[in-house]
Amino acid sequence: MLFLRRCNQLLQAPQQLTLFVNIGFRFYSSDSEFEIKKITKIINDHPFPDQPVHPTLAQVIPSATISTSFVENILGRLFATHSNGLKAFEFFKFSLQFPQFTPTSDTFEKTLHILTRMRHFTKAWDLIDEIQKTHPSLISLKSMSIMLSRIAKFQSFDETLEAFEKLEDKLSDGKQFGTDEFNLLLRAFCTQRQMKEAKSVFNKLYSRFSPTTKTMNILLLGFKESGDVTSVELFYHEMIRRGFKPDNVTYNIRIDSYCKRGRFLDGLRLLEEMEQANCFPTLKTITTLIHGAGIAQNTNKARQLFDEIPKRKLLPDSGAYNALMSAYIRSGDVKSATRLMDEMEENNLLHDDVTFHTMFSGLMNSNRIDGVLGLYRKMIDRNFVPKTPTVVMLMKFFCKKRKCDEAFGFWNYLIESGYCPHSHATDVLLRSLCSHGRVEQAFGCSVQILEKGRHLSKNSFRVLEKYLTEINDEDKLRKLNEMIKKLHTALPASKGHAIGISDPNQDRLALI
């Protein structure tokens, strides 16, 4: 997710063209945060697929509670907590039956994003068909980009092109798609670093559409993310030869390309070139250079660039602070990074997931266990739930340091917050608990995952199978096997998911 967010920041796309929805928690004074958390947790904890969700929703959600902002907040939390996509879909459909709720682009896009993230493409197409009939204006470039990007990630090149054509047939009212839709298709491939496919589509459809500078920037960003500076510069010159004029987004991408490869001085050279071309640097430009200075271990230059932000009539945001913090962490200066956290608070800037992830990384690398625990408690006290990479990093740290109590406590905090931990974090915790003789707790965690309608990984199941067999607890193994098999009837397993005991006629359960 950090990579995808970075792509959008560099492109600085208008909101309606942003590929991945910025699904955060947006609270309104009319809504009770407590009520939102409570309903989200009820949906996440609802046994799936044992019982339908709709009757429970009707029982726990008063009709007067339903409003547009309420539904947006619930869906936002369901997305952030990795809820089962089918339960989120049921909640959205449940909300549609109330006359005071008018679906918005935000609610539709969040539901679509949740479904496609879990590869429920059939349901996603059903949702698009339904909305097209009832609220066709909600189907925007953003919703189309969500669909195309996920299909490009999880399905084949041909299937992605077919999806593009299918969307055109459904949504264009007889008119052909234009440059904006063409850009979405290119970006779907570029954000997956599928540059061979992106170039093929560009060459094939170039004559049909009218590419703009934005089109070329999307391709340029794709080459940057492939990690090849030479490819970036070659395509940049091709862009110039085709008559496109570079803008500040173009320069930001090129600067980031050099900085990521440790060529910070080349990034500074491009800043000068940018200014000479009367293409004024943005806050993103300076933030990128601060990050590049950190990669080059030049904290003095990073601080100088940061201090120049007000002189350029710009205001530093959390991103700029995080970039400078990362520079300090890379040089081992944890104290200066910590002072930056305090400075952010003084300037009323919230610590976001990148802030915590950067600081945890620095404290872990410097082997400051007490510092990690202190920051962890500070995060918990603020009721902050980090994103998946930070969750996995913390879980690995606790388990590696043999702090099973902290790891299990962190798990319970996530569950109580309505979050369904990612399979990587689950794998790490279950392995650690079992190796320390806490098989009962490991079994309980696996049941929580399955009850929420999320698959258990093959690795987790094998670990539990091994330890449950060793302690002769066949009842628990049988229960896990039954829950996994039942979940498959409603939610087919994908690669890496547990399928239970494959041949019951030959396994030890057949002996009972």
From TrEMBL:
Family: Belongs to the PPR family. P subfamily.
Name of the protein: Tetratricopeptide-like helical domain superfamily
Taxonomic lineage of the native organism: Eukaryota, Viridiplantae, Streptophyta, Embryophyta, Tracheophyta
Pfam families cross-referenced by the UniProt entry: PPR, PPR_2
Keywords: Repeat
Parts of the chain that traverse the membrane: none
Residue windows of the PPR repeats: 212-246, 247-281, 317-351, 352-386
Top-level taxon in the UniProt lineage: Eukaryota
Family matches, as Gene3D superfamilies: Tetratricopeptide repeat domain
PANTHER family linked: MEMBRANE-ASSOCIATED SALT-INDUCIBLE PROTEIN-LIKE, PENTACOTRIPEPTIDE-REPEAT REGION OF PRORP DOMAIN-CONTAINING PROTEIN
